[in-house]
Each structure stands twice: as C-alpha cells, then as structure tokens.
Specification:
211 residues; alpha+beta; Jelly Rolls; globular
Length: 211
C-alpha cells in the first residue's frame, strides 16, 4: 500500500525537478526568418510596408513570428528580387543587424550569406544573454563569403541560450543575408513555475490516494 502511495508522488516530483533544470529538453521547432511576406511583415523608410511594395527599399524593421530583425549599423535593403530563394536582405558596404525574440531565450542555428560584390572582409556572429556576451565568432578575410549563398553554421555555439543575436558583415561590396535559423527555448523561470505546479499536483494526488 505504501509503495502505491509513494510512486505517483515520486514520479511527479522527479518530473518537476527535470523541468526546472532542463530547458533544452523543451526547445521549440526551428524558425526560419526568410523575409517572406507569407508569414512575416516589415516596414521601410517612411513606414512604407515591405509586403505592399515589392521592390528594393531601405529596411526599418522585419518581424517573423516572435522574432524581430532590426538594422543597427549601415544601410540595409529589403531585396525582393534576390535571395535563397528571394527575398533577402542586402547591405552595401557592410552592416549589422540584430535579431531578438521579445526578450525571450533562443538559439542561433545557421544563416545563409552571400558576397555579391568585391570588398567583403568577413563577418561575425555575436550572441548575448541579458547584455552579456555568450559567443563572438566569425571569419576574417575576403574569401569568407562566396559569390553565391552559402550556409554558415553556429557549430558548437548552437547549444547556447541567448536573447539577442548580431550578424555583422564587414567591409564593402553588396552582401546578402537570408534564412536566419533560430530556435526558441523556454526560460528556467517559466519551467520552474511549471515544475512547481507538477509538484503541487503530486501532493494533491497523494492526499486523494490516502483518503
């Protein structure tokens, strides 16, 4: 009888603790920020809608699902005509974009980059969590990017939780960005609440069994 009472409580308690310490176990599906108007939206200079005007315009912001892309340096264009497949973002003479998920945690998986013109001298990826740098890596040199789209992977850093990502294209030329793959993950505080709820449920089950 005692074993029958203890097992449900023990199982639920273990589940609660697992949830609290393992946010990676609940990583969501990959979101591909592909700048496609079918599931995203953005604005250009003068608050002109990107999706209502299929042309190359200076980017102000882009939103896809919970993720936002904002230029933080240089001039970026919404490139309706080119991409992998089109559309994409283009930066002339280098530039930086920032990706966020409304302050929530996520992981960086990969991005497609292209050097459409001469002058690029590399790129960097910087991931931060609450303002502190989690990773900072990239490639330096004119051969870092090819003249056709190539996928650049996060590699070992793809397991790191961040809440902001910076993609920095260095140098001149006309460089393009497409298919930014990111994965949302739950924050420990949310999992802790869920785990606490399960733990409370465990004691409720025990009381019912005892009764």
């Amino acid at each position: 009888m005692k074993l029958r009472l203890v097992l449900p409580v023990f199982s639920l308690a273990v589940a609660a603790m697992t949830l609290a310490v393992s946010p990676s176990a609940f990583a969501g599906p990959i979101t591909t920020i592909d700048f496609n108007c079918s599931d995203g939206s953005g604005t250009t200079t003068g608050n002109k809608s990107i999706c209502a005007s299929p042309t190359t315009e200076t980017l102000v912001s882009w939103t896809q699902g919970a993720f936002s892309v904002s230029p933080t340096n240089g001039t970026w264009f919404y490139n309706f005509f080119q991409g992998n497949p089109s559309p994409s973002l283009s930066a002339t003479g280098g530039g930086t974009v920032s990706i966020t998920d409304g302050g929530s945690w996520f992981r960086f998986d990969s991005v497609d980059l292209e050097a459409a013109g001469a002058g690029n001298t590399g790129y960097t990826f910087i991931g931060k969590l609450d303002g502190s740098t989690v990773f900072d890596f990239g490639c330096s040199g004119p051969t870092c990017l090819s003249t056709s789209f190539a996928t650049e992977l996060a590699g070992l850093y793809g397991n790191d939780n961040i809440n902001s990502l910076t993609i920095n294209l260095i140098g001149g030329g006309n460089d393009r960005v497409d298919n930014i793959d990111v994965t949302g993950v739950p924050e420990p505080s949310g999992l802790l609440l869920l785990g606490t709820g399960i733990l409370a449920l465990a004691f409720f089950v025990r009381r019912k069994l005892v009764a």
